[in-house]
Amino acid sequence: MKDKITIALPKGRLAELSMEYFASKGITAKSMNEDTRKLVFESDCKQYEILLVRATDVPVYVEHGAADIGVVGKDILLEYMPNVYELKDLGFGHCRMSIAKPKDKEINFDFKDWGNLRVATKFTNIAKNYFKENGINAEIIKLYGSIELAPILGLSDIIVDIVSTGNTLRENGLEEGTTLFESTARIIANKISTKKNYEKIRMLTK
Amino acid sequence: MSLIPEGVKIYFGENMEKKINLEDRIKANFKNNGYKLIELPSYEYYEDLKINFSNSMRRKMFKFEDRETGEILALRPDMTSLLAKLMNLKEKEMKYPERIFYMGDVFRHEKMKERSQAGVELIGVDDKYKSDLEILIMAIEIMKSLSLEKPMLEIGSIIIFDSLMKKLEIKKEDIKKIKGYLDRKDIPTLQKFVEEKNYDSIILELPNLVGKKDILKKLENYVDVKGLKKVLNTLDELGYDENYILDLGMVKEMEYYTGIIFNGFAGEETGEYILTGGRYDKLMGVRALGFVLNIDTLVDMVEKTEDEENNGYLITGKNYIEGLKKKVEFIREGIKAEWYSENQSLEKVKEYGRLKKFKYVLDIDVNEKYLVAGVDKNEG
To answer: What is the pTM (predicted TM-score) of this model?
Structure first.
């Protein structure tokens, strides 16, 4: 049976912040600073294995047990609802899920007068649930990037997207409205691994 | 249409052999424990099924219409709820205790839409302590008997959770929310919720009450944990202390559980539980509990079964009628036999014979047999 704990981290800034957190638990991996193309690293103490994957893939690795724990934003957890434990709020990676509309368009954010609202978003499940719960008839248009373009080109009336500073929205002539929720990075864990390696995982999430 | 619908499974060849072997061993184990096989209907009235399930499970059922009555039917999403209905219908004919097991497929709109299951139900034993132990031990022992590495049960209790909620006077709709957070051990959201509602902070301990039985102490001042403790003490006494871990924050998707609940895992499999079970006294109208094995996951986990030894005759030749007669003769005697229908060289026939695990190729024209595998005992 393997004794190593495998940690899946989302590539980029969140991985750096996560490693700062894990350093406080005694886990460091010097090799991460050396080779930027590698995706799998061993911790200096050799007891942990660190994977760098796409943020949306982190919960997939953890749910299927390919990684024991992982770090991922609450936004992604709410969108994909993976069958994992969410053990800790790491407090960093702060952002919010918001609705935005073109600044020059008269749209009230309660969408009372709309027959059919077109919404462009990467987060289709979150958007679908929000409008359903609020009794708004919305057509959800799935995009994979540059969501801000959709209302400008008339592809959609509004967007639902992640906002951190709001600069991107402003630069594209969009105005932020309702915030659906605030999101930060979470430590997630595979359900069975949590039972098998209870003490180690508890130590990492205390 | 040449597509295979999503979520179905096909067993053939090596996997099929593994599955048959696995099911044979499980069946023998259940029978030896005194359990009787039951075959249940594949579908049931949705109206009767839905009372046992939460909304999320109701949505997962495959529903269709009864042509005669217009009633909605659903493919069985699990076996226990079907059995419960049967028990209630045939209550008068039942002589408790009943020990029943089942094998078959269940259907849900999930990643894998059809799943093979094998499970046991112990119905009508009044002594909770003894029946809890019978089922827990069977669950550990069945995993052991399948030679799985480090078989483990995670054990929790819905009755402890329910009593705690009652004791703390948690509102019904909030209990549902707390259950949802606990199921994901969503500690950040649970914390926010408990603080907002000003509930006792002991609730925040629940997701972390994982470990050996000393963690029961944490809840002793709130609820009665003696029942569970007694069961665990006996498990320890019998040498099963390495085969379980307590999780007092455990809850279940199926809403019918009323007492002990547990899931099983082993080896390096961390994607799926091997087995899942618990007590559901209200569902059956009498005390009842059981567990179900996840056959599809087990097939992936068990080693390839021992190859069967080569035996029987592969018959070839030009004289088809004689060959056919010989084949029927062998089959009547309980010997494996097959007619090789292609016109091929003896070498090719032997090759096919080896592949199909025959011991001999029989040339019916000259009535001569050739050994294709193993040792011929008769000829030394």
So the answer is: 0.89
